[in-house]
Amino acid sequence: MKTEALLFAGVAAFFLVTDVIYIWLAREPAGGAALAVSFGMASVISFFCAMNYRRKGTRPEDREGSEIQERAGELDFFPPESGYPAAVAFGVSLLALGLVFGLWVFLIGVGVTGGSLFGTVFQFARRDH
Fold first, then answer.
1. Per-residue pLDDT for the chain (129 aa), expressed as one digit of tens each?
2. Is 8 exposed, middle or buried (0-12, 13-18, 19+ CB in 10 A)?
């Protein structure tokens, strides 16, 4: 995962530099927004890969002398059920409605989205570490 994290960090840096240059030269908001979103998405993937590498270490397929059997067994933990994804969707809907109806709805959406994302990430976090 370390290689993937570095790869996507390079992609994110490319989008960031391209976005700055595009905003400076073109002065057109749609392209700048698209590049900013691309930077954000690549950054999220890079962060995910880096945290996975930090938590789990090197995978068998990343080592030279590993065997196929090393990858057998339980892959990961998959949550059985959660209400947080629906709460995230509701929060994002409030964010979008806030762009139309006013700042106060947007700020409520920020709170709902932030809280539900926090819950999604840490709902099944181990407490023994």
1. 788 899 999 999 999 999 999 999 988 889 889 999 999 999 999 999 898 888 878 777 777 887 878 777 777 777 788 889 999 999 999 999 999 999 999 999 999 999 999 988 888 776 554
2. buried
In this structure, what token pair is assigned to residue 34? 């698209």
Query: CA distances (Å), 9 to each of 28, 50, 94, in order?
Result: 25, 10, 30
Could you tell me the pTM of the whole model?
0.59
Rg of the chain over CA atoms, in angstroms? 19
Residue 121 and residue 125: Cα distance in Å, rounded?
A: 8
Angle CA 27–17–47, to nearest 5: 125
Write the DSSP string, 18-58. Answer: HHHHHHHHH--HHHHHHHHHHHHHHHHHHHHHHHHHHHH--
DSSP letter (8 states) at residue 4: H
